[in-house]
Design goal:
The protein is mainly beta and 210 residues long. Helices cover 11% and strands 30% of the residues. The chain is built from 3 helices and 12 strands; from the N terminus they run E-E-E-E-E-E-H-E-E-H-E-H-E-E-E. It has a 7-stranded mixed β-barrel. Strands 2-3 form a two-stranded antiparallel sheet. Strand 9, helix 3 and strand 10 form a beta-alpha-beta unit. Helix 2 runs parallel beside helix 3. The chain is globular, with a radius of gyration of 17 Å. The N and C termini lie close together (6 Å).
C-alpha cells in the first residue's frame, strides 16, 4: 500500500506570487460558454515561474539550456524530505551536513515556507545560501526542491542558482510540504512540455508508504 502526496501549489487568481507583483498573477478568462456557444472553454495567462515550477539553466545563465533539455528521467526517482523548519533565514552548509546527503539523491527542503498558506508573498522566506549550494554540489545530488517561490534571495548575482545550474542539478521551486513527514519517497515532477523557454509550471507528487 502507498500514499500519494500532492506537493504542488494550486494555480488560481489571487494566489501567492513572487513579490506580490500583479503582473505575475495568473489570469483565467472564460472565452466560450453555454450562453454563446456549444462548449465551455477558458484561457489561462500566467508567468512560467508561477506556483510550482521547474527552472532551466537559461533562467540565470546566458546561453543556458532551455527547459526541454531536462529529461523526464531526471525528474523521477528516489527523494528525501529534510526537516529544516527550525531555520529562520537561510539554509546553510551546517544545516545540511547532519543529514549525510548521498550522491544521486533528490533533496526536498521542508522549511517554514510550507506553512505560509496565505495569498501574500513573504519577502523574508527561507532560502538556500551560497555555501549550502556549494555543499549540495559536492554531495553530487540529482536535484533540489524548495518550498519557496525562489531558491534564493538577497544574494548579489544569484550564486545559488548559477552554481547549481552549472553543475547540471535540477531546481524545482514552489513546493508545498506542510503535510509531508521527513523521510524517503518516490518523486514525480511533471513540467508542461514546453520548448525554448527558461521554466515550466509543473505538477509534483511524492509516493510513500501509508
Amino acid at each position: 500500500m502507498f500514499k500519494i502526496y500532492d506537493i504542488s501549489m494550486t494555480v488560481h487568481e489571487g494566489m501567492q506570487v513572487w513579490n506580490n507583483e500583479g503582473s505575475k498573477q495568473p489570469i483565467m478568462t472564460n472565452v466560450s460558454n453555454f450562453d454563446d456557444g456549444e462548449a465551455y472553454e477558458s484561457q489561462l495567462t500566467m508567468n512560467l515561474h508561477t506556483g510550482t515550477h521547474v527552472d532551466a539553466p537559461l533562467h540565470m545563465l546566458k546561453d543556458g539550456a532551455t527547459i526541454e533539455s531536462i529529461g523526464l528521467e531526471e525528474l523521477v526517482g528516489q527523494a528525501r524530505v529534510l526537516d529544516l523548519t527550525h531555520v529562520t533565514d537561510s539554509v546553510s552548509r551546517a544545516d545540511l551536513e547532519r543529514f549525510a546527503i548521498q550522491k544521486g539523491e533528490w533533496i526536498l527542503l521542508k522549511t517554514r515556507n510550507s506553512m505560509n498558506e496565505s495569498m501574500t508573498f513573504d519577502s523574508q522566506f527561507v532560502y538556500v545560501n551560497e555555501d549550502a549550494a556549494r555543499y549540495l554540489i559536492e554531495c553530487g545530488i540529482r536535484g533540489i526542491g524548495v518550498d519557496g517561490l525562489g531558491i534564493e534571495r538577497s544574494q548579489q548575482e544569484y550564486p545559488t542558482h548559477r552554481q547549481i545550474f552549472r553543475s547540471n542539478i535540477v531546481i524545482v521551486e514552489g513546493l508545498r510540504l506542510k503535510h509531508v513527514h521527513p523521510g524517503n519517497y518516490f518523486l514525480v515532477v511533471a513540467p508542461l512540455k514546453l520548448t525554448g523557454v527558461e521554466a515550466a509550471p509543473a505538477r509534483a507528487i511524492l509516493i510513500g508508504g501509508i
